[in-house]
Design a protein that fits this description.
This protein has one domain. It has four helices and no strands. The chain has helices spanning 2-6, 11-75, 80-146, 149-167.
């Protein structure tokens, strides 16, 4: 006890700082970490669903390819003119289906990528806002105890200007 007093450590102030730190840690855990982890899990599930949908589309394409081959096998038993016509029809249908399926997959992937990027940007913006607000609040509380009024005003103005530039 005597050693602590000689070192100039105020136990009351140290205890208050520990309590403030624990409160800040609790607030961060409840307001920042859990929602961020929840958003990440949601995105992970959305990406998994997109991959699953892509696999289903590929299976559908394979099934359509098998159906086309079956149609060609049946058509080969008919006359040569019918065979030629059936081949042309099947090939054009195959190309249309493939192009349509590829277009759908491409559109779906583009929409998902765009949505993921937009959500990521929105999440990062929200996190920056929340962290900035928490830092400002904690800085203000700490600075009110340790700086004069003119120092506090100058620092508040600088922090407010920095936050404004971050929001832009």
């Amino acid at each position: 006890m005597e050693l602590i007093e000689k070192l100039g450590i105020d136990l009351k102030l140290l205890l208050a700082q520990v309590v403030n730190f624990l409160i800040l840690l609790f607030v961060l855990k409840k307001l920042v970490y859990k929602p961020v982890l929840k958003m990440l899990d949601t995105r992970k599930n959305m990406i998994a669903k997109t991959v699953e949908d892509s696999k289903k589309m590929e299976e559908r394409i394979e099934k359509l390819e098998e159906e086309r081959k079956g149609t060609l096998a049946k058509a080969s038993k008919e006359a040569v003119s019918i065979i030629e016509k059936a081949k042309k029809d099947a090939e054009s249908e195959h190309q249309k289906i493939l192009e349509k399926a590829k277009g759908e997959i491409s559109n779906m992937m583009d929409r998902c990528r765009t949505q993921i990027v937009a959500e990521k940007n929105a999440m990062m913006k929200d996190i920056k806002k929340e962290v900035s607000a928490l830092v400002i609040m904690s800085s203000q509380k700490i600075l009110q105890r340790e700086f004069s009024d003119s120092d506090q005003k100058r620092l508040k103005d600088a922090i407010a200007q920095e936050v404004r530039s971050l929001k832009k």
